[in-house]
Design brief:
Elements (H helix, E strand, L loop, with lengths): L2 H11 L2 H25 L13 E2 L2 H6 L3 H4 L7 H18 L5 H25 L1 H4 L4 E2 L3 H14 L4 E4 L3 E4 H15 L5 H22 L6 H16 L13 H4 L6 H14 L6 H14 L1
Antiparallel strand pairs: 1-2, 3-4
Length: 290
Amino acid sequence: MGFIDEIKMRYRQGGMMLRLIYINVGVFLLLHVIAVVFWLFGLDAAQVLTWVEVPSSIGELLKRPWTVITYCFSHYDLFHILFNLLWLWWLGRIFLEFFTPKHLSGLYILGGLGGAALFLLAYTFLPALAHERAYMLGASASVMAIVVAVAAYVPNYKINLLFLGEISLKWIALAVVIISVLGIGATNTGGDIAHLGGAIVGYLFTVSFKRGRDITKWINAALDGLASLVRRKDSGVGSSVNGYSSSHSKKSEPTEADLDRVLDKIRRSGYASLNDAERDILFSASRKRQ
């Protein structure tokens, strides 16, 4: 098996959170490789980022509309990507204890869209920013949406922090929101505004979810549609952009035998060993019994 084939296999077998991490790392490496090639040929390496970062100007955005998605999968600074992916891994695992992998991917993208929207609104209508030109990239708004969503759903869920001991998720979420508010007007104004956009989306997701509505549903429907197009060109391999096939979305409710099999696997190997389909079974059974 070749190196590329092994990466593809690990991507398909990994859970949704690992897939998001793989995509972020892959884009990070690709941007740096292209930047090196540009430099070797005497071209401006900074031009590479204009393909993926979202601009503060709506006029520029209309020329590169895809950047409202690509920016939240793109990083250029090593510590930036490390910080964001550590947060995603840490809080994403807690998120998946209460929500499905589809909720994770949908909220990741929706949080990014919310961050981009507030970023654009601020630089268009706020007098202090309207005359400035700014660009943004990074997964911070997406990760913020996940952090706030799970904190709003289980605010008293406690985790251990070095030197601080046990602390509830609500205080962690409140702290990162306050830090973002205080950061506006400093060196990363656009990023901090986007963080707040992601936080708003995360909170709205949980409020809507508790009322029986899933605001990420339309995103996952679009991703499943895209996955169907990919599969038609993939020689029947059956891979999926969102980790699910269209037949999976139409699957019947899990049976007791399905649930017993999943619970037995948890007893033997732990929750982390479950794949996306098995976590869906566990989540569906949990919702049905509530």
